[in-house]
Amino acid sequence: MSIPLLEVEDVWVEFKRPGGTVHAVNGISFKLEAGESLGIVGESGSGKSVAMLSLLGLIARNGRVVRGSAKLNGEDLLKMSQQELREVRGRDVGMIFQDPMTSLNPIMRIGKQITESMLIRRLYSPEEARARGIELLRRVGIQNPEQRFDDYPYQFSGGMRQRVMIALALALNPQLLVADEPTTALDVTVQAQVLSLLDDLRKEIGMAMIMITHDLGVATNHCKRIAVMYAGEIVELATVEQLVTNTAHPYALGLMESTMEIGHGKTPIQPIPGMPPSAMTLHTGCPFAPRCRFVTERCRNEKPVLRQVEADHTVACHHADEVMHHVAEQVHV
Amino acid sequence: MAVSKTLSPTAVDTVPQPETLLQVFWRRYRRNTMAVIGLVLVIIFILIAIFAPWIAPYHYNDQNLRNTWQPPSAEHIFGTDDLGRDQLSRVIYAVRTAAIVGLGASALSLLIGAVIGSISGMRGGWTDTILMRLVEIFNSFPAILLAVILATNLGQSVTTIVIALAITGWAGYARLIRGQVLALKNQEYVHAARTLGASEQHVITKYVLPNILGPIAVALSFGIPYAMIAEAGLSVIGVGIRPPEPSWGNLIQLGINKMRGFPYLAIWPTLLFSLTLLAFTWFGDGLQEIFNAKGER
Amino acid sequence: MLLNKSTFNAHTSANGKEPLLRVEHVTKYFPRGRTRFAAVQDASVELMPGETLGIVGESGSGKSTLSRCIVRLYDPEEGTIWFDGINFTALNAKALREKRRDIQMIFQDPLASLNPMMTVAQAIEDPLIIHKVGTQRERQRRVHELLELVGLDTAAANAFPFEFSGGQQQRIGIARALALNPKLLICDEPVSALDVSIQAQILRLLQDLQEQLGLSYVFISHNLAVIEHMSDRIAVMYQGKVVEYAPAEEIFRAPKEEYTRTLIESVPFIPRPNKQRAFPWQVPA
User: Fold this and answer.
1) How far apart are CA A227 and CA A221, in angstroms?
2) Rounded mean pLDDT of C62-80?
3) Which of A224, A239, B260, C167 has the smallest number of CB atoms closer than 10 Å to its CB?
């Protein structure tokens, strides 16, 4: 058994603001094997984006990782210098972001942007780089890649720009792709195409992927495992099947119930009451307690830690068994 | 209420502690030290202007021909001039005049500019085109020339100088306000106001103007020193506030002639005039900062 | 001034079977370069009192433009809009302002739709002031009533919009829109900018309000699942045209247009082991 591609252990991230400290990430741990796909699901304020961005050295200057390790192929990213991280980004880890409008350099031809990372590292000659670039564009589904290679970003539509971003991310054959809300800004039909493209590419190259999203539907259809984050912590970590059939955390259950899907008709929606907590507060008990329907006094005083409820299924909840029981009953109803 | 009980799955429990607008502004303003100093000086300036007759030891035209050309002394802290008038008192009264001229002229300019600018911005079309040509005419006319013409024809009392300066100055405010109105016209909350059924006038007064208070306040705080300088300029040519009523301008003008032999007449008004201008500038800078922090704490 | 269903039923059109809203062949042009293009082309839809018309489409479909035409933020170049039996498009400025009491709107960006210089109470009270409803004390009581109705603590009344979260801001917008007891509420992507769990709360609030107050909605969204939860009839728009228009069950059971089918198929579905996702129009291989 080789070492995992990415091993994140007990990472905490803080930001200093004039009003106080923002505790964005409060101790997350997970492993990712080569070729595996993990979806990190959460809402705004859950810390899902900050978690991955901080590992790659991409957070604002007032933020820092205060604890933990993140080993990529055995080397701790958090101990690397900015220079070393720059190497990692692009070569080992490719990234795509939410807004294709602002993620591409508007005044540089896209071909140049794709080949830039290849040429800086002197891995290929300019002709080889260009050929590879065109091939990449073809792979991501851009028609007439030879002509489009010399176009500017404004000449592409939103969905096409996202494809260009994917081509950019794949330029150096990275082992891991980090996609931060890659399709949120896209129309739903385009979203389906881009996600399907990602699936095909991953199958072809055998690349691992971490997809950060708020959309349970997207995550469960394109990732093998899901980590649900709330208030900076991973509250449930499971395979898609386990999450859907054996939901163990009340927040995950609430998310599943309030996710609107086709086929329910005009029926009343079941929301999770209350609001997510401010990231400025540190919780003594479970952060979800104020909104939880399974809450007891113990939850308010004692913070639950991640424990195993099945093979490969961990959850941070004192009442996970109750939740799973509840879910099992629903199925039989 | 029965209604809210059935809606409780969706009720929200946490709500922010409300702060008044003033508290929010003060918190932001405080961060800039120079601005706070400016504010203090501006307040002192205004207090002196209001209470001038009670603060000044003498009246500004109290002549004592046996006491002319006195350097600063215990009795006359700034000395006396060629007619034996106490300079300190004259400076204090000049502050009052400056306040009236500065605040009055810029307020009047602003009023005219605001009406024209907001109508022009909201209406658009031909109204906008015509009004903007009017603005351009007033802008391209050399201001000093216009002020001189007005001053010599209307007289040189405080009132007429204020009117003259207002007429030369309104065009700048009109442009500013029109620009701001154009920028805000397409904000979603203006659309929302329309869907509520608000009349054009209600939209302007309740939704547009309060949101351009920021740039207006800043423009005003820079416009006041500008008006004071304009008056000083007029005085240097001899068509400013007519003596014996003192203003920064005519005090400095009197003092400049005798600079070499008797510097005291010119120095005090100049120094204090400069300090006043600085104070308003710092104040304006501070205002600019608080209005730039949009939507954040 | 208390809100309840009977107050509203008294408001509904004299002939209960008549549509509350009828959009007939509406076309709206916008300039593009030297010529113009039709953001909405020949759109015709209807809404019965107490129901919801869902308008779904992707970007560029014209759904937002159509909603703004209905509320007359834009004036369509062609076509007529009938509201409550009156030719709404033909009303002059003064009559329009009057009739606006009955059609209100909530917006996609809740913060942007609130006047930054008005407190919550002032914002909600403003429609009452505009239409000269009630005394000051009555208006303030009404503001409190509305805050409770949308689930906000009345302590919020003197705060400014920027101090609230997105979901709370949208509740403020809803309270403001309901101040005048409108018959029709146009909801232009009201939850697209909100977090998933908050989306659910706001939509549930809108569902409850429709039930409690007998409101009619025109609900615009790009999210099909949301549209299904909210709508009785659905209009699918594509590039300015209404390509399909049918009762909700029909749209999802037997969509006629290729585009509609593609839209439905594109929506991600949480895979559940016992439920296979089947589209009735797909022939099994």
Assistant:
1) 14
2) 93
3) B260
pLDDT class for A59, splitting at 50, 70, 90? confident
Angle of helix B21-29 relative to helix B264-292, nearest 10 degrees, comes to 120
Report CA-CA distances (Å) from B77 to B52, B90, B177, C135: 16, 11, 45, 61
Name the residue type at position B140: S
What letter does residue C238 receive in the DSSP assignment?
E
Cβ count within 10 A of residue B105: 27
* CA dihedral sign of residues A134, A138, A142, A147: positive
- Residue C16 neighbours by CB under 8 Å, 6+ apart: C49
Which letter does DSSP use for residue A4 in this model? P
* DSSP string over A227-241: EEEETTEEEEEEEHH
Residues β-bridged to residue A229:
A234
**Which tokens in the block code for residue B85?**
């008038």
Instruction: Starting at the earlier edge strand, list the strands of the sheet with A63-72.
Output: A20-32, A6-17, A63-72, A75-76
**CA C41 to CA A178: how far, in whole Å?**
41
Buried-exposed string A267-298: b where 16+ CB fall within 10 A, e elsewhere: eebebbbbbbbebeeebebbbbbbbbebbeee
Residue of C nearest to B196 (CA): C127
> CA nearest A290 in B: which residue?
B13
Angle, CA of C14, C20 and C21, to the nearest 5°: 150
- C16 or A285: which carries more pLDDT confidence? A285
Contacts of A12 (CB under 8 A, 6+ apart): A23, A25, A26, A27, A65, A66, A67, A68
CA distances from A45 to A136, B136, C193 (A): 35, 51, 14
Residue A176: its H or E element: strand A176-180
Query: pLDDT by residue (tens digit) across A210-219?
Result: 999 999 999 9
Residue A64 contacts residue A56 (beta carbons within 8 Å): no
Q: Where are the alpha helices (DSSP H) in B30-157?
A: 33-55, 87-123, 125-140, 143-154
**Residue C60: per-residue pLDDT:** 86
CA dist B54 and B65 (Å) reads: 24
Residues β-bridged to residue A25:
A13
Q: Report d(CA C27, CA C41) in Å as an integer.
A: 4
User: Which amino acid does the sequence have at A97?
Assistant: F
B9/A274 CB distance under 8 A: no
Contacts of B274 (CB under 8 A, 6+ apart): none
Q: Which pLDDT score is estimated for C283?
A: 61
| B239 touches B161 (CB < 8 A) | no
DSSP state of A282: P
Report strand pairing: C21-32 vs C35-47. antiparallel
Chain B residues close to A270, C-beta within 8 Å: 9
Strands C52-56 and C216-221, by their bridges, are parallel
Structure tokens at B250: 């005519």
Higher pLDDT, B14 or B130: B130
Distance, in Å, from the CA atom of A214 to the CA atom of A220, rounded to the nearest integer, reads: 11
Whether cis (ω within 30° of 0) applies to the bond prior to B244 is: yes
> What's the distance, CA A71 to chain centroid?
17
Which residues neighbour C282 within 8 Å (Cβ) at sequence distance 6 or greater?
Answer: none
- Type of residue at B158: V
Angle between helices B158-185 and B87-123 (to 10 degrees): 40
The H or E element that residue A94 is part of is strand A93-96
In the A/C pair of chains, how many CB contacts fall below 8 A?
A: 124
Q: Are A90 and A58 in contact (CB under 8 A)?
A: no
Residue pair C104/C184 in contact by the 8 Å Cβ criterion: yes
Please name which of A44, A47, A40, A42 lies closest in space to residue A22, comparing C-alpha atoms: A47
Contacts of residue C146, Cβ cutoff 8 Å, sequence gap at least 6: C124, C175, C176, C178, C179
- CB contacts, 8 Å: A261 with chain C: 225, 267, 269-270
The count of CB pairs under 8 A between chains B and C is: 130
